[in-house]
Specification:
The protein is built from seven helices and two strands; from the N terminus they run ββααααααα. The protein has about 325 residues and is an all-alpha fold. The chain is elongated. Strands 1-2 form a two-stranded antiparallel ribbon.
């Protein structure tokens, strides 16, 4: 049987029924006809050409993209709230106890540093009475050196214990950021403490992590996506990290000078360097106490604000349901 003599048209891919070119659905089976279908074969045996419809180039709707970005932020916050209501989402855990332990350890470190600086000042006075050149160890100098060695051991022990609790506090403070509804975080809690152990990177990464914790702990961090990124980092955090780097540099120099000192004048210079190191360490520890306690207070305040906001929203929702 010869095909129906149509100049153009669309053939249904399901039942094979020929249809007019302007048809959107098959006249027999009702199947939707695509814009490109099998061409109708004319009586002469030549397929009727179906003109190809030009395709419009895709256009970028920047407004829609911005709305989608904002909608994703709202979805993240709603997802966090929903998970939290089920007891599965991130929950805020106060780091106040750990913060107080860190502050106590740093306070003890300051007291030990003051004792070390006092001993070095006393040793400088004793060495100034000793003739220059090679000296014979006296009872006073031997006792002073033993006391300084004890202070050095105590400082290392207190610093190690305090550092452990400080890293625990960093992990807890950064993990609380998700519970405070902060988004667009650059680091994870694990990487927040891992940056302290990577050579060269640990020169800048700990400061960046603490700065992120401070800014993302703002009480208004949940208002819109990434609003905390516009928060500024206070000066005392930059000073803390600057004194930390300086104290580490001075500590290395003082250790080299003490072990290399064999004459009276060399020991005097080494003691003076050690005094500068003690004073720098005291300033660093005092600023670290301020960093820990202020960030902890900032997160506690942000948690109270979020809790009161959620309670007000729940009360409003209950009131509207009753109406």
């Amino acid at each position: 049987m010869e095909a129906t003599a149509l100049s153009s048209g669309k053939r249904c891919s399901w039942c094979g029924t020929p249809n007019a070119e302007t048809s959107n659905a098959c006249s027999k089976c009702g199947a939707a006809l695509a814009s490109i279908q099998q061409p109708i074969v004319t009586a002469a045996g030549a397929p009727a050409a179906i003109p190809e419809q030009p395709q419009k180039p895709p256009t970028l709707d920047y407004g829609a993209a911005a709305n989608a970005y904002e909608d994703r932020s709202k979805f993240e916050r709603l997802s966090v709230d929903a998970m939290r209501s089920l007891g599965l989402g991130p929950t805020f855990v106060s780091g106040q106890g750990i913060a107080f332990i860190v502050a106590a350890g740093l306070s003890i470190y300051i007291l030990i540093s003051l004792a070390g600086a006092s001993l070095d000042i006393s040793q400088i006075g004793t060495l100034s009475k000793t003739p220059p050149g090679l000296r014979t160890p006296s009872i006073e100098l031997t006792a002073s050196e033993a006391a300084m060695l004890l202070i050095r051991v105590l400082m290392i022990g207190v610093a190690m214990v305090t550092a452990i609790f400080f890293l625990i506090w960093i992990y807890r403070a950064h993990k609380n950021l998700r519970a405070l509804d902060a988004t667009d975080l650059k680091y994870t809690p694990g990487w927040a403490i891992g940056g302290f152990f990577v050579p060269i990177l640990n020169i800048v990464r700990p400061y960046q992590v603490v700065a992120e914790i401070w800014r993302a702990s703002a009480p208004d961090a949940r208002r819109s996506r990434g609003v905390w990124t516009y928060e500024s980092t206070p000066v005392f955090i930059s000073l803390w990290w600057g004194f930390w780097l300086l104290s580490g540099f001075l500590d290395s120099i003082s250790v080299v000078m003490v072990f290399g000192a064999g004459q009276t004048d060399q020991m005097v210079v080494a003691s003076r360097y050690r005094i500068v190191y003690y004073l720098t360490s005291i300033a660093c520890a005092a600023l670290a106490i301020a960093v820990v306690l202020k960030i902890n207070a900032r997160q506690e305040e942000a948690n109270r604000v979020n809790f009161s906001t959620a309670a007000e929203g729940l009360a409003t929702e209950i009131a509207s349901d009753q109406l």
